[in-house]
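A quick aside before the break. I want you to see a complete sequence-to-structure record at least once, exactly as it would be stored in a machine-readable document. Don't worry about memorizing anything.
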Amino acid sequence: MQKILKIVLVVAVCLTVGYFSGMETRESITTWYPTLVKPIFNPPNWIFGPVWTLLYIMMGIAAGLVWTKGSEEQTTKKALGFFAIQLGLNALWSYLFFGLHNPLLALIEIILLWLMIFETYNLFKKIDKTAGLLLLPYLAWVSFATILNASIWWLNS
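That is the input. The structure line, written in tokens, reads:
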């Protein structure tokens, strides 16, 4: 498969995961989420959509670059396996936080997500330096989201 096609395919998968995660949050963003006490550094709701869209695109490009390096190689398979797991955990967080209205469970899960992203980053950068770099904004955003999640849990427990 051509390099561009692989990248486009993975970007599409990431954006699809993002779309379904967004569907999970839509109702709660207007009903449950406004009732929570939030820290002063909580960003406005409108920022999350554009940020996540950009991050999903960057994640997809990163995974596509790794995929083009040779999907038969064991290191590439391992890296893409970690990528798939963290992508699933990414979607799960939205369900736990917004679907179940459970900031504590979401906090536990986002810590696991952060660890999986960090390991994916480490594996990606060994295969393709650009792919690794493309994951750094995602890692930074999930670091911020972890602090935000912890703060919301703390302020509302």
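Two observations worth writing down. Helices lie at 3-30, 48-68, 74-99, 103-127, 129-156. The mean pLDDT is 95. We'll return to this after the break.
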